[in-house]
Design a protein that fits this description.
single chain, mainly beta, five-stranded antiparallel β-sheet
Amino acid sequence: MPKKTTGKDALELGKRTQTQGSKELTKSSTAWEHEALAQVQQKVMRGHTDSVNTCQFCCDDHKVLTASSDTSIKLWDFASGDTVQSYQGHSQAVSCAKISPQNNRFVSAGWDKKVNVWDTETGRILWSADHDGVVTYCNISNDGKMVASASDLDFVISIRDTEDGTLIHQIKDYHTSSITSLQFSPTDERLVTTSMDQTSRFYDLKSHSNTITLRGHINIISDCSITSDERRFATASWDKTIQLWDIATGAYRSQGPSTLSKYHEGSVSSCCFSQDGSMLVSGSYDMCMVVWDVENCIQKLKLQGHEDWVEDVCFSQDQAWVLSCSKDHTVRLWNIEDSDNIPVVLENKKSIGLKIITCSECGKPFSMAQLDETKVHKCVFCRMSKQRNYFIADEETEG
C-alpha cells in the first residue's frame, strides 16, 4: 500500500530538503567547457557525487531534473547551471526520476525498492509505494494522472494514481526479464516498455492487453522513444544499434525496422526524438552521443566530452539543446542550434546527394535528394500534419 507522509513528516522533510538544497547551491559548479573554436558549445554542470542516471528538461526548458546513484534528485537552473533544489528521500541509488508535463509533481524510483511521488516546489514526498525488488524505471503520464513503475525481481509493472498512490492496474508476466524503460504514449492510451529479454511491447491501457511486440535486436534493449505524432518508434540496444520502426503504417511487419549503426562503438544506453521527430539523439557507453537525421537515417553530429558511460539523453523543446548525463557524475548541455551550418554536417548531406531546403510552412530546413526535380516546398512533418491517428493497433507481431 502507498504510504502518505504525515504533516509532521512532510514538514521535517521540507526542512531537510531546503537545507540540503541551499548547501548544494554552494557546492555545484557550472562552466562552459569547449575549445575556443568548437562548433558545438557545451556547458557542464557539476554537483552530483556519483553516476547521474537520468536527465530531463522541464519548466519550459528553464530547468533540468536529474537522478543519481548518490541517492539524490536535483533540480537545476538551465541559465545559470546552479542547483535550485536537492531532494533527499531514497536510501540507495536513484535509478530514475521523471517530472510531469505540468511540472508540479515528479516520480522517482530507487534501488531501495521504493517509488516516491514528490511536490516539486516544496520538496515533500506526497506518497511512497514499495516493490519487491529494485525499481528499475518509472514514468508519469502526459496528463499527469498516472505513475508507472517496474521492478527487476518479478518484472511486475504497477500503474498508480498520481494523486494518492492508489493502485490502478498491475501487469504481471509481461516480460521474461528486467524492464529497462517504460513510457506512456503521447495520448496516454498505451504503455510502451523495453526489456532485457530483447523485446519492446505496447500495452493498451483500455483493453489491458498487449497490442504490439517488436523483436529485432540481438542484445538487451535499453531504451525507447516515440514521436509526438506516434508515427515512429525508436529502440536503443546493447548490440550498438538503434532501430526505427514505422508503427503508423505497419510497414515494419513486412520490411522490418531501419537500423542506425556503425557510429557507436559501445552499447547504446539511451535515445530520444526531437519534438518534431526530425532528429534522434542517442547516448552510449562509448562516452559519445550521436545526433541522427531521422528522415535520411544518417549521422548528423557526434558529440564528445563525457569521461565515462553516457546514461541518458534528451532534447529541449525548441531543439536547440541536447542534454546528457553520465557515470562521470556530470550533466552536460550541448548547443546544437546552428548545427545545420556546421561544415561537417553539410558535407555529410552532400556526400549522400542531399540539398537543404527551407520549409515554406514551418520555416525549418529539411533535406532532399539533389536529383529530385519535384517541386516540394514543405518538410515531411508539415505535409503529414493533417493526417492524424496513424497508429495501427496490431496483434502481437514479430518484426
